[in-house]
Amino acid sequence: MLNGKINLITPPDKLYNNNLSYLLVKPSKKIKLQFQNMLQDIKQDINVYVFDDTENDIDWLLGVAQIVDMVIVDIDNCDPLTKLFVSLLLSQNNTHYITSDEITPYKLLNRNRIYNLDWLEEVLNDIGENDEDTDEQ
Asked: Over the stretch 76-123, which tens digit does the pLDDT of each residue have?
């Protein structure tokens, strides 16, 4: 089977389809690279929304967070404006966050703290295997 198509989407654009969708909020270079490496062998089409270093369209960010399957927030990399809205993002079940901050009690809002994207690679591999099973039937 061929590799899937990856749609990279940034503000102000949105893509409405049935693809699995991820939103990366202020990802560090390390997170971007890890995510990119995971997607090299993905078999299904996927949407990747990126709210990056130069972005400040909070309306777009909050709207996209409502339509994607998973949000990954790199809290330590957020600018002051984005940090004002982190608690709103953390209140959603589909949000996972990365931080080295041991003082701020983010865990009271969200228990989906992650330290890297290793766990996500397993999720993506499982999805790819399920797609292959469906194709065989």
From this structure: 999 999 999 999 999 999 999 999 999 999 999 999 999 988 878 777
**Whole-angstrom distance, CA of residue 45 vs CA of residue 18:** 9
Q: How far apart are CA 58 and CA 85, in angstroms?
A: 8
Read off the tokens for 31.
């997170």
Domains, the chain: 6-136 (3.40.50.450)
Kindly state the DSSP code that residue 2 receives in the 8-state scheme: P
Using alpha carbons, list the distances in angstroms from residue 28 to 44, 45, 78: 25, 24, 9
Q: Write down the pTM of the prediction.
A: 0.88
pLDDT-derived band at 53 (thresholds 50, 70, 90) equals confident
Asked if residues 89 and 71 have their Cβ atoms less than 8 Å apart, the reply is yes
